[in-house]
Amino acid sequence: MLSPKDVVAILRRHMWLILILTSIGFIGGGVTWYLLRRYAPQYTAKTFIRVLPPVETDPMRIGSPIVGKDIQYGRRVYITSMLKEQSMLMNLLGRDTIKATEWFRSFGSDTNQGLRIRESFEDLEKKLGAYASRDAEFVTVSMTCGSAQEAADIVNEMVELFIASQRDSAVSGVRNKLIELEKRRTSIERELDLSEKALDDVRVSTGITDLEERTFQHTITLRVNALDLEEQELKLQVSELQAGIERLEARATGPIGVQVENTIERDPTMLMLTQQMFVTKTALAQIQTKFGEGHRVVRELRKRVEDLQERRNIRRQEIGDQTRKANLENARDELVVMHRRLEEAERQRQEAEANKRRLDLAKVEYNQRLRIKDQLQNQLNEIKDLIEQRRIQAEDPEAPKVMPVGRAPKPLRMSAPIWYTYLPGGTMLGFVCAIGLAFLLELLNDLLRTPRDVIRYVNVPLLGVVPNASEDHELRGVDLCHIVRLAPYSIVSEAYRQLQVNLRLSQDNGTRVIFVSSCGAGEGKTAVAINLATILAGEGKKVLLVDANFWRAMLHKAFSNSPGTHNDEKAKSDFGLTNLLGGEATAERVIRPSGIDNLDVIDAGPTPSNPTELLASENMTKLISEYRRYYDRIIIDGPPILLVTGAKVLAGCTDGTILVFNADMTRKGAAQRAVRELRAINVSIIGCVLMGARVLKGGYFHEQYRSYQRYQQPLLAG
Length: 718
What we know:
Blueprint: H1 4-13, H2 15-39, E1 43-51, H3 69-83, H4 86-93, H5 96-99, H6 102-105, H7 113-127, E2 128-132, E3 138-145, H8 148-206, H9 219-252, H10 258-265, H11 268-291, H12 296-394, E4 402-404, H13 419-444, H14 451-457, E5 462-467, H15 483-486, H16 491-506, E6 513-518, H17 525-538, E7 543-547, H18 555-558, H19 569-574, H20 577-582, H21 587-590, E8 592-593, E9 599-602, H22 611-615, H23 618-627, E10 633-637, H24 646-653, E11 656-662, H25 668-680, E12 685-693, H26 702-717
Parallel strand pairs: 5-12, 6-10, 6-11, 7-9, 7-10, 11-12
Antiparallel strand pairs: 1-3, 1-4, 2-3, 8-9
Helix pairs in contact: 2-13, 4-7, 4-8, 8-12, 9-12, 10-12, 11-12, 16-17
């Protein structure tokens, strides 16, 4: 994944590409705008349709219900979709006004009407616009074509067609509802007549005509209440009579009471006896006073008094018995009468209650049928109101819920092309293409160009980065194999020194034999080996540089002017590592000075017939072991890892391997393969060197070049 820094670096590296393509996009946009303006201008006519709230309003009331904004906006969106429906567009194309336009005749031919309709429909579908306003209650209808007048005509024709279709749909809907309401009204009126007949049937069947609800009680209810009250009174009287009879029965055998005494006293016989007794007693008292107790008259009078008293007692007893018996009989007779009256009252009450129950049942049935009638009547009234409303709605101009705002005027300005669209658009298109091309080039480039690429794709320590020598003017004409010696103040020489320092710090003293190789040929491994050996020799270490690349030997050319070297080709092929490993020459004959203090060289020698076997021989191992004692460092310049098997043999004989990657040649896959193959045979990889890294805008060495040159100016001036 690219970091922001990587993105900026890519843009800076391809700055000219971006500028050129952006300029081309700007010019292309301007040219396109001019050509379209001259040869294919476009005009857009617009008009508006007012969309009313999608609710049915009551024409009998003033005002309209409040509808949410989202619902109204949804209604406007629905209207726009209806305007763009295929059926609506086909109806528009079928109108004579549209067929007469140049826009319609420009499609197809007169002989092929089907093709003309199809092509004009496709163009109309693209260029006829309908847009719903979010906040206002309008839908914008527009048409774009090459003629300003025809654009306005097409828009106006579409609006008229749509409004007419909506009005027809709304009126037909209202009429259909009216028909349904009329049918419903007839049905309810029929049911209402049946309910009225049912009420009459209830009156006839029950024989009660007064079944309506009243604020006062019905006569039957009043009679039940009166009879109930009368029955209660009769029961009370019966209870009282029974109690009186019991009292009379108790008095009939007991002493005479006060009331009977009063009756006795009023008896004429008793009054006569009482009067006679009084007269006799008076005479007795007078005679007794005159004649004394023993007189005959006194005794007669006293006897008469006793007779009168006895007659009076007898009469008193007779009258008392007769009176009490008469009272008892009267009470019993009255009780019988009261029982009859009570039975009659109970019979009448039961009859009245039966009538009341019949009344209640009749009222229940009557009220049920009356409620049904009332419901039907209410429904009938509502339907009549709805019928009246529908009739008013059928004549209402707002019935279709859409109204034209006005006719679309002829546009006075072109709608396309517009310079402030094409010029910035072309510029932006060129810029986007440039950015895309820049990133595409970066993605297609699979070379290890920067240290970041090495770290990201190759899991090997990066010991050093050697800049491309062609970008340093101080290295013009300088042999790349001797940069450290011939151009010691260049940034390339400084890079080799940094390589040597990183190598020393990353390894212990046991790493003395170093194998330098690469993925392929020509990637700069020989230059790295020679310059590294030169720096080590300059530090006072005794170094042996061995050319083990039998396939493409280079050291004899790099040190051709050193002492002990012959310029002819025969001298080159006579002595070298081949002769030493084959036992054809001694070490004193093969090892030669390089012309640099502390640095000796062993050339490759003549090309053997079996180079891999020769490098894998025991003599090669013995040679390395023997020279460890005489040299501080042995650097072997070998063949490429991926091209020759002998390179892996040499890597296994040394203490460590340095891989050289070239920024212009080494691909990521090759580098990963080389590392993988070396690790497969347990070779110690000390690290790698990135050779020929170029100065990239926003990349590695860009600022380092400037800083190093400014820093070296005082030294170079001295």
